[in-house]
Amino acid sequence: MKKRPLVVVTRRLPDVVETRMRELFDARLNHDDRPMTPDELATAVREADVLVPTVTDRIDAALLAQSGPNFKLIANFGNGVDNIDVQSALDRGITVTNTPGVLTEDTADMTMGLILTVPRRIAEGARVVPDDHEWSGWSPTWMLGRRIWGKRLGIVGMGRIGQAVARRAKAFGLSIHYHNRRRVAAHVEDQLEATYWESLDQMLARMDIVSVNCPHTPATYHLLSARRLKLLKKEAYVVNTARGEVIDENALARMLEAGDLAGAALDVFENEPAVNPKLVKLARQNKVVLLPHLGSATLEGRIDMGEKVIVNIKTYMDGHRPPDRVLPSML
Ligand code: 8YV
């Protein structure tokens, strides 16, 4: 009988996914409600055939140098693979896969929800529960937010998620603008009525709301730098459901604190799972909305991601190329 591969999963997955994994593999599942420690990850790559990491697990060259003779596959539970040194893995004959396409709509829903909410949530004095636990009665000038209908939305990164955000935002009456490494196909631009900006600087200076939807790569690290953030209008909002590393968080915090930006909503952070204490303080001052990386966090989406992980592992173990193999050229 063929030996079942030892598969180490770094975080708890939906029950239906874990049940299937136990049926198919020698599954070692981490049910502690915390990330695995570096020592635990080192033991995993030393002993396992397959590792299933999530976004906060750093799979770098130093860890991969400790991998054992059986370790051949990193089946990432997630679309973004910036947590993995893909080139080092490939140099060691280790295949990397991810879970593309199944979290697009959920992440776009969350992004659109933040685009709609933030200009109203960060209205002056707006509170979920007023401090005095009773409201001073409705007034025409009470907690005034900002209209988004008719405003300009600048999307940084027009891939699957960026385009899904554009489809939603168009339906809400926003004017769609985007900056991307490459211009998208003309028919896509036409469908979305989207305006391409070759210059990110020029786009940022003219937008009312900016949505970050690009992957984190060496080229996009601090793409929204302190210099670029200063190009934004004071009444502009920033929404980030992509990767925290794309924005210079400290620069953003300084602008929010100084009132040089109307507000922001962040679902991702530079040093996850830690959150910049300056942002936490600003959240208490109602100048920023913070979420703990919930963009794709639906039960259906997590199950779809888990099923893609299982297919990638099974395909690889059957001696075939996994459908979601990641190559450095794709990043
Ligand atoms: C996932 C994400 O939840 O898939 C991604 O790239 O950022 C999230 O939507 C996360 O990766 C889970 O590991």
TrEMBL record:
Q: What is this protein called?
A: D-glycerate dehydrogenase
Example of a GO MF term: glyoxylate reductase (NADPH) activity
Question: What Enzyme Commission number does this protein have?
Answer: 1.1.1.26
Q: Tell me which Gene3D superfamilies the record gives.
A: NAD(P)-binding Rossmann-like Domain
Example GO CC term: the record gives:
cytosol
Q: Which domain of life is it from?
A: Bacteria
Could you say which protein family the record assigns here?
Belongs to the D-isomer specific 2-hydroxyacid dehydrogenase family.
- Residue ranges of the TM segments: none
Please tell me the species this chain comes from.
Answer: Methylopila capsulata
Query: Which top-level enzyme class is recorded in the Swiss-Prot or TrEMBL entry?
Result: oxidoreductase
- Ranges for domain D-isomer specific 2-hydroxyacid dehydrogenase NAD-binding come to 112-295
Q: Which UniProt keywords apply?
A: NAD, Oxidoreductase
Key word NAD present in the record? yes
| Residues covered by the D-isomer specific 2-hydroxyacid dehydrogenase catalytic domain | 19-326
Family matches, as Pfam families? 2-Hacid_dh (PF00389), 2-Hacid_dh_C (PF02826)
CDD domains associated with the record: GDH
Key word NAD present: yes
